[in-house]
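Summary of Year 1 activities. Much of the first year was spent building the evaluation harness for sequence design. The harness presents a backbone, in tokenized form, and records the residue chosen at every position. We chose the following record to illustrate the format because it has been used consistently in internal testing since the harness was completed.
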């Protein structure tokens, strides 16, 4: 069992720039996958702080000048770190409904120095980001941006010392396509971009590979029409031989896209996009990761009906060569109290609840023994975070251990950052 250690940090902001009557909303955060940088920013637009978790414990690095706009949404923004130039590249857009002036605004790319936090370059794009939560994908040196207006297209930029250099523009096949980047990774001086295009309704989805030289491969993924008429690609993971493992969620519009009708399919795609194997799940896949030490692909999914108060969490271990299910384990949970489940690079499964409950289990132990620490109702037993804010009001105090104070979290190897519902506090749990 992991030993938890708590650490409390604070989002740094000059108090004199705040409206004392304005309530603190949850801090917003985005983080870089290419290097463990976290940016926290507030809804006031007062400050944007950069933190590093290179050492395992978050440490303050610098403050971005100027700060990011407080109106932007984390799921409509992203950040990547370009190590060759010590640049943090941030992309975002501001929906008109969240702007004080209610005016439309284009998507924006900003390049900041990680040494000084100073803004080096601003690039305004000619339009808005595509709808959805996957409008921007990043590698260490490149950023692929999906534009929804004025026409669906994906623009690839190289991040350099002089800012952003456009290197590729890929138009959509039709004006009605939902056209997004699925995966972007560096390949020497070049890059490989995997894109997805589909329409609604449709039971097929087209994947294509691009590089600076243009379209290099294409394949269509289809599901039976009675299974889904809307397909949405999820995150990917890469195997050592270059195979891409991708999960695709399918829903039925006739069922209003309720979870009852949602099913997922996991595909293994060879470097040329030939399909190596397919594994279908009667559940909603959330995450897919590859773990070399276990020689297994780990799939995290959930199953439940729209009217149910309790869902089932499922972890599946797949053979990376055949896609065969080697082992499955599950527990039950209440969706209104559950926050996230993620696998780490250190081969652990981290469960976080909205009340700050935590469970950290080695994947090997789950594969061997399943989930042993469960209640009589098959609920996973968690332990409370050693750090948390003081209750905000009487209702929170009366809730006790059931007080749902966590707005969102960032899971990393050997730690999790918990962002509360209000205030500048940042609560870190390590093990």
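For this record, the design step produced the sequence shown next.
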């Amino acid at each position: 069992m992991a030993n938890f250690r708590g650490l409390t940090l604070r989002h740094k902001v000059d108090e004199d720039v705040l409206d004392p009557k304005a309530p603190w909303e949850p801090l917003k955060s985005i983080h870089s996958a290419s290097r463990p940088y976290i940016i926290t920013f507030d809804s006031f637009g007062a400050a944007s702080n950069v933190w590093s978790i290179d050492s395992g414990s978050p440490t303050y690095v610098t403050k971005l000048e100027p700060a990011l706009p407080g109106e932007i949404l984390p799921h409509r923004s992203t950040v990547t770190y370009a190590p060759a130039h010590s640049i943090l590249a941030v992309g975002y857009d501001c929906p008109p409904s969240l702007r004080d002036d209610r005016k439309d605004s284009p998507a924006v790319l900003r390049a900041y120095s990680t040494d000084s936090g100073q803004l080096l370059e601003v690039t305004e794009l000619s339009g808005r980001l595509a709808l959805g939560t996957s409008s921007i994908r990043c590698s260490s040196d490149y950023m692929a941006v999906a534009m929804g207006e004025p026409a669906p297209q994906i623009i690839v930029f190289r991040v350099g010392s002089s800012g952003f250099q456009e290197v590729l523009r890929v138009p959509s096949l039709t004006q009605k396509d939902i056209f997004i980047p699925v995966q972007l990774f560096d390949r020497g001086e070049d890059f490989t971009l995997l894109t997805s295009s589909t329409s609604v309704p449709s039971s097929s989805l087209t994947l294509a590979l691009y590089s600076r030289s243009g379209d290099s491969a294409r394949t269509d993924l289809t599901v039976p029409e009675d299974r889904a008429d809307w397909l949405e690609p999820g995150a990917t993971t890469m195997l050592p031989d270059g195979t891409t493992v991708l999960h695709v969620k399918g829903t039925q519009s006739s069922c209003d896209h309720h979870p009852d009708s949602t099913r997922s399919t996991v595909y293994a795609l060879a470097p040329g996009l030939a399909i190596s194997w397919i594994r279908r799940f009667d559940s909603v896949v959330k995450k897919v990761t590859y773990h070399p030490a276990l020689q297994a692909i780990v799939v995290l999914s959930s199953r439940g009906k729209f009217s149910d108060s309790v869902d089932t969490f499922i972890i599946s271990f797949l053979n990376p060569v055949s896609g065969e299910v080697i082992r499955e384990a599950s527990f039950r949970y209440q969706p209104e109290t559950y926050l996230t489940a993620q696998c780490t690079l250190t081969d652990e499964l981290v469960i976080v609840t909205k009340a700050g409950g935590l469970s950290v289990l080695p994947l090997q132990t789950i594969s061997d023994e399943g989930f042993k620490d469960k209640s009589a109702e098959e609920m996973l037993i968690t332990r409370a975070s050693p750090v948390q804010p003081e209750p905000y009001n009487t209702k929170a105090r009366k809730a006790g251990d059931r007080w749902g104070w966590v707005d969102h979290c960032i899971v990393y190897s050997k730690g999790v950052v918990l962002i509360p519902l209000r205030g500048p506090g940042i609560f870190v749990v390590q093990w």
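Residues 223-335 form one domain. Quantitative recovery figures across the full test set are reported in Table 2.
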